[in-house]
Amino acid sequence: MPRYRFSDFVVSPQRRLLVRAGRELPLIPRYFDLLVLLIERRHEAVHRRDIFDRVWTDVIVSDSALSQAVRTIRRTLGDDSREPRFIRTVSRHGYRFVFPDVVEEQDDGAWPDPETNASELPAGSEPSRDEYEPLLERLTRVTRTPIEEEERREAAELLHVLGTSEAVRRLGTRPGHASARALLRDTRWDSPGAGEVPVLGAPAPLAVARELVALRLRRGARMVAKRWAGASIGGGLAGIAAGTAGGLILAVAPHSDAPIGIVPVLAVIGGGCGAIGGAGVGAGLSMAEATARSRRELALVLAAALSGGIVGSAVQWVGRWGLAALVGLRLDIGGGVEGLVIGGAAGIGYALATRRAEGGMAAPRGRRLLLAAGLTAALCGLGGLALTLSGRPLVGGTVHAIGRAADGSQVSLAPLGQLIGEPGFGPVSQGIIGFGEGALFGLGLALGFMRRPS
To answer: What is the mean pLDDT of the chain?
Structure first.
């Protein structure tokens, strides 16, 4: 594997080092990968799409994340975007490494020992106090345009370079400190060598937390909307598949009175319930992933369970009211607990399957995507089985209960139980239906939610 020399820099992909005059310059891993990609393809302008596919291959990020990465690399190299020596922006396309004299050599010879480590400043001497004030003034300024917001973000990144602890100390409680502290907290993940920016124990912790959530949701709003819609579509398609399969089996099963027309009816019911459930759980997952980084797994599980429970409770209330008002049936149908359990199971499966995803919303590919979807489906299936065995059926069991309670109904899942040797819709057939429903929902939800946009 070669290494690259240009100006007074050395880049070693094998050792994952960026060195200037014997001094190691810190870069977070994805930014280092971006620099290597631009150097490797220095004879062409690299499209943004290719950068996302190569550098952020397992997560989805916004365009602003790429702009921030390039800004950090330029600052590390001492480059200027207005008169670039190293990285030039190609309008409406991407970026190009433009330094003409790049020496490519084998990375098997002597290597200079770095004089500093990643926790030290990348270059220069200790900062003076005067360097903080202009940046703090810019950081606490009220912004009205996207350009001004990016300037604030750059000020936060530069303060991390100067010294996070000193920046936080000097920020204090001056006007605008809550929003400024939230921005410092957010940018520390993308600033190599940045220190801690605590929220608990800091001035106005609730205001800082609110500002941080709002900041991350604003930057990830488009991705949140796409992920939420994908989860709803995936859950809806899974429900249609489950309803169609169940209807076909009922229509052809011995001793069944169900007509073939039951197939589209159950498909519509399954699709509607799946889409609503997917929308609820997907909304919780997407908002948690967009806003939480230090406690990602816990946030995913809690948000998915809570949102699933809220949507399930709403469906439960509407279902009970609708049955009572329209056909005079008063059934104790569920929804809230079921949504809480299935949502929590989906959150656990997704969190475990994507626990190594950093810097964006997880979007695994190939085998990893199938494993993630399979794990989520298995846990949702187990959740559905546990609910059914505890007397809380999902959609299929609820349809069976409505059919038994309604006079003249032709819908009964008893023939399904008879197919496996039970006299009716017994515990075994109920468990199979419950597990299958949960697993299909989890599979559709995960595939729709993790779908990588083209």
So the answer is: 88
Token code pair at residue 180? 């400024």
C-alpha span between 179 and 166 (Å, rounded): 17
Give the C-alpha separation, 224 to 216, whole Å: 10
CA distance 446 to 33: 28
pLDDT at 355 > cutoff 50: yes
pTM, full prediction: 0.84
Question: Rounded distance, CA 438 to CA 24, Å?
Answer: 51
Q: Model confidence over 365-375: pLDDT tens digits?
A: 889 999 999 99
Residue 383 C-beta-side C-alpha neighbours within 13 Å = 28
What is the distance between the terminal CA atoms of the chain, rounded to a whole angstrom?
A: 31
**pLDDT, tens digit, 9 for 90 and up, residues 120-170:** 444 444 555 568 899 999 999 988 888 888 889 889 998 998 899 999 999
Going by C-alpha positions, the residue among 32, 74, 26, 66 that lies closest to residue 49 is 66
- With bands split at pLDDT 50, 70 and 90, how would you rate the model's confidence at 109? low
Q: Which residues contact 338 (CB under 8 A, 6 or more apart)?
A: 312, 387, 392, 394
Residue 344 has a pLDDT of 96
Q: State the burial class of residue 328 (Cβ atoms within 10 Å of its Cβ: 0-12, 13-18, 19+).
A: exposed
Which residues have CB under 8 Å from 376's CB, separation 6+? 346, 349, 350, 353, 442, 443, 445, 446
Question: Which of 388, 441, 433 minimizes the C-alpha distance to 274?
Answer: 441
Domain 2-103 indexed as CATH 1.10.10.10: yes
State the Cα–Cα distance between residues 294 and 271, nearest whole angstrom.
36
Task: Give the domain ranges of the chain.
Answer: 2-103, 129-218, 220-449
Please count the other Cβ atoms lying within 10 Å of the Cβ belonging to residue 310: 17
